[in-house]
Design goal:
This protein is an alpha/beta fold. The protein has nine helices and ten strands.
Length: 276
């Protein structure tokens, strides 16, 4: 029997002892849903031959930009015009205004969840870099960690009701991220995995360990094109296939030629070849 994503998430949250949830059951047949970008708007992404975009939530304010009715209306109009979806929303403001400590952060999560519901975006990137980083010198910052756990726990049921995943992106190891997810204990909180930020950890092995707890990927290669490191990305793609990933690959790539559309097209074509 097939369940809708929303029905599945709602059912999963009722299972006793969610921290011991059998995450392997979340595996689906390997299928990349689309190649997106967080570096272009919808119109430019369409021109570059991409399948969708990841949009930003905006800077710190009582009402986030992504929550403004006029912004949502604008994005809906562009989605209809281009035929491309918003695949995810990126909460980059949490790097300077951390989820752990900013008193406005719980409200920002709620606002972004509602915006994602209205836009049909499946994932919200919950960022933990800069001031928001959860580790220092390789060790967990315990006070911030516990605060984040409590705030994600509080937001997770709302995300489940909206059919949205809260995808944390950070520089923690796979083991540390498992600790975070187990502490939250809710299947609506997963990992947004960046294959460049954590290269020092052995990315293919980390991907295999986290498995279906990864809900979305960022692909980037610093100042270079993805196809400048073919062996590395072939190894990454092999690991992504092995976990039966069925979500989006979002390009967070640079533009070596300074032609953002042409460079996004080149990187997207390479990713499609990797998963052909």
């Amino acid at each position: 029997m097939k369940l809708s994503r929303r029905s599945f998430l709602q059912t999963a949250t009722t299972v006793a002892g969610v921290s011991a949830f059998p995450w392997s059951l979340l595996a689906a047949q390997a299928k990349i849903r689309g190649i997106g970008t967080c570096a272009l708007g919808l119109r430019d992404a369409k021109q570059a031959g991409l399948d969708g975009v990841e949009v930003g939530a905006g800077g710190p304010a009582d009402q986030l930009d992504i929550a403004r009715p006029e912004r949502i209306a604008q994005l809906k109009a562009e989605m209809q015009e281009t035929g491309l979806p918003v695949c995810s929303i990126m909460m980059g403001l949490l790097n300077s205004n951390p989820l752990a400590t900013d008193p406005r952060a719980p409200s920002w999560l709620e606002q972004t969840i509602e915006a994602a519901r209205q836009l049909g975006a499946r994932n919200i990137l919950v960022a933990f870099f800069g001031r928001g980083a959860l580790q220092e010198g390789g060790k967990i910052k315990e006070a911030e960690f516990q605060s984040v756990v409590e705030r994600l726990k509080a937001a997770a049921p709302r995300a489940a009701d909206a059919g949205v995943l809260l995808a944390v992106e950070n520089t923690l190891t796979a083991e540390q991220n498992e600790r975070l997810l187990d502490a939250v204990g809710h299947p609506s909180v997963r990992i947004y995995y960046d294959v460049y930020n954590t290269r020092a950890y052995g990315v293919p092995q980390e991907i295999r360990r986290l498995g279906c707890r990864i809900s979305q990927f960022h692909f980037k290669n610093g100042p270079k094109y993805l196809d400048d490191d073919p062996q590395y990305f072939q190894e990454v793609a092999a690991a992504v296939r092995e976990i039966d990933y069925d979500g989006w690959i979002v390009l967070e790539t640079s533009s070596p030629s300074k032609d953002k559309i042409a460079d996004a097209r080149r990187n997207a074509e390479y990713v499609r070849k990797l998963f052909a």
